[in-house]
Each structure stands twice: as structure tokens, then as C-alpha cells.
Design a protein that fits this description.
Strand order of the largest sheet: 1-2-5-4-3-12
Mean pLDDT: 79
CATH architecture of the largest domain: Beta Barrel
Helix content: 25-40%
Order of helices and strands: HHEEEEEEEEEEEE
CATH topology of the largest domain: Thrombin, subunit H
């Protein structure tokens, strides 16, 4: 026969109350005693005893903490790098747009300067089609009948004469360049006032024809439109003399001219709308 033992247990709430009371007493003593008090000395002793253990723990866990920090920083760096790359792309696009606007503004200023100098009404146009091959001297612009264009109107670039309209549709026009083999422009040498005709060729070179060997023309001379024939206004720059060849016994000189405009680089042009000839254009005078 077993005899039941009666165990007396202190309620947990009682222990909690005791711990709280002890903590309050210790805190009160701690704040009231001086730095040399027993509790302060006890705390300093415990810290001295546990310092080696704390240092060992610090040394042991340092690589792990460093690795965790490196991985965390790596993630942040990659995220920042992605944002910086995106910002770089956006900034490059903005810079490219601003540079394109600046270049276009400079080209348009040059065209407006030419228009004011010519003292003729003009219509701005963009080049939307270039020669398909080296011997085709036709470009296409984005202006047509609805903009007031007609066949035979002179077309100029920032540096000088480019050609004239030959085919005009509702919203676009074909421009025959002065370098085309079917083109001819009444011209004169600005310095000596010698007149002739500037003709194109199949390879895009210009020559000033019908100039007598008795006249003086030299490299560097500027060739301009003479205004004869009524197709092109007088005084528009055509190009510059490159060289002059006088063959023995010939009555005329062979004068090669470098055109003032390079059609392959033009993006905007001016059409002189006032200078319309009385007869349909046939590619030149």
C-alpha cells in the first residue's frame, strides 16, 4: 500500500513577483551607489572574466558576418548597377536627341540665311529619297503641289545650288541635281565674269563648258549662276573651280568644278517658289 506524498510547490506567480522585486532592489542600489560600489565592482569583474570568451566569439563569427555583409552589399550593388545602366541609356538617348536638334537647328539657320540672301520666297523641304545608284542624279523631297511646288523650281542647300524640280506630285517632288548628266546651268566665274554652262556627267562631275581659251580662269574661282535663261536666279553659288586644262589647238578650256553641295549629306533643302520658268523644266537650260 502506497502512501501519497503531499508536495508543496510555490506558485509560479510568486516566483515572478520575487524576481521583479529583486530586480527593482538591485536597480535602486545600482543607481544610488557610487562607481566604486559593490554592484559596479561585481559587474566590472564579470566583464573582465568574460572578455576572452567575447573576443573569441567575435573572432570566430567575423568571417561569417563579413560574408553575409558582402552578399548583402553585392545584391545592393547589382541593383544599383542595373538602375545606373538604365539611367545611362536614358541619358544617352536624351543627349542624342538634343544633339540632333542642335544640328538640325544649325542646318535650318544656314538655309534661312540663304533664303534671305536670295530675297525670294522659299519653301523648306526634307530629303526623303536619294539616288539609287552613282549615275542617277535624282532625289525626292517631301513637298508637292499641295505646298505650292511646280516643275522647274530651283532647289538650293545651305552652301548653294542643288538642282530643280522636274516631277511634282501632290505630296512629293523629284529634284534633278546639277550633277546629273542631263542637267545644264547658265553660269559665270564670279571673279572674271566669264560666262559658260555648267554641265553634269554620268559620274557626277561638273564641268564649265563654252569658256574661251583667251579668258583667265584658275583653281579656286567661284562659279555662280548667271541668271541667263530665266531658270535660275543670278548669283547662287554652284561650286569652285578645281583645275583648268587647255589643250593645244582647242578653242575652249576644260574646266572642272567641285559642286558646293554634297547631295548624299543633305537632309533639308529650300525650294525657291518665286523663280518659276515660263516653260516646263527639262533638267536644265
Amino acid at each position: 500500500m502506497r502512501v501519497k506524498r503531499t508536495e508543496t510547490r510555490t506558485p509560479r506567480i510568486g516566483w515572478v513577483a520575487i524576481y521583479v522585486a529583486m530586480a527593482i532592489v538591485l536597480m535602486t542600489v545600482w543607481f544610488r551607489e557610487a562607481e566604486t560600489g559593490p554592484l559596479h565592482r561585481l559587474r566590472a569583474g564579470v566583464q573582465t572574466l568574460t572578455a576572452p570568451i567575447s573576443a573569441a566569439g567575435e573572432f570566430t563569427t567575423r568571417p561569417v558576418r563579413g560574408l553575409v555583409a558582402w552578399v548583402t552589399d553585392l545584391g545592393v550593388s547589382r541593383s544599383q548597377l542595373d538602375r545606373l545602366r538604365l539611367q545611362n541609356v536614358e541619358l544617352r538617348a536624351t543627349v542624342a536627341e538634343l544633339e540632333e536638334a542642335r544640328l538640325e537647328n544649325e542646318r535650318l539657320k544656314a538655309l534661312l540665311k540663304i533664303a534671305k540672301t536670295s530675297d525670294l520666297d522659299s519653301i523648306g523641304a526634307r530629303v526623303i529619297g536619294r539616288p539609287a545608284n552613282s549615275w542617277d542624279g535624282i532625289i525626292t523631297i517631301d513637298r508637292g503641289k499641295r505646298d505650292g511646288l511646280a516643275p522647274g523650281m530651283p532647289v538650293i542647300g545651305p552652301q548653294g545650288l542643288l538642282g530643280q524640280t522636274v516631277e511634282v506630285s501632290r505630296s512629293s517632288s523629284k529634284v534633278r541635281l546639277i550633277t546629273d548628266q542631263r542637267s545644264g546651268v547658265a553660269a559665270m566665274v564670279q571673279r572674271s565674269r566669264v560666262e559658260g554652262v555648267v554641265r553634269g556627267s554620268i559620274d557626277g562631275r561638273l564641268t564649265l563648258d563654252f569658256v574661251s581659251v583667251d579668258t583667265t580662269v584658275g583653281p579656286g574661282d567661284v562659279v555662280i549662276t548667271s541668271g541667263m535663261g530665266g531658270v535660275f536666279p543670278k548669283g547662287i553659288v554652284i561650286g569652285e573651280v578645281v583645275d583648268v586644262v587647255s589643250n593645244p589647238g582647242a578653242l575652249q578650256q576644260t574646266i572642272n568644278v567641285r559642286p558646293s553641295e554634297d547631295p548624299s549629306r543633305l537632309e533639308e533643302v529650300l525650294v525657291l517658289s518665286e523663280a518659276v520658268p515660263d516653260r516646263p523644266a527639262r533638267g536644265g537650260e
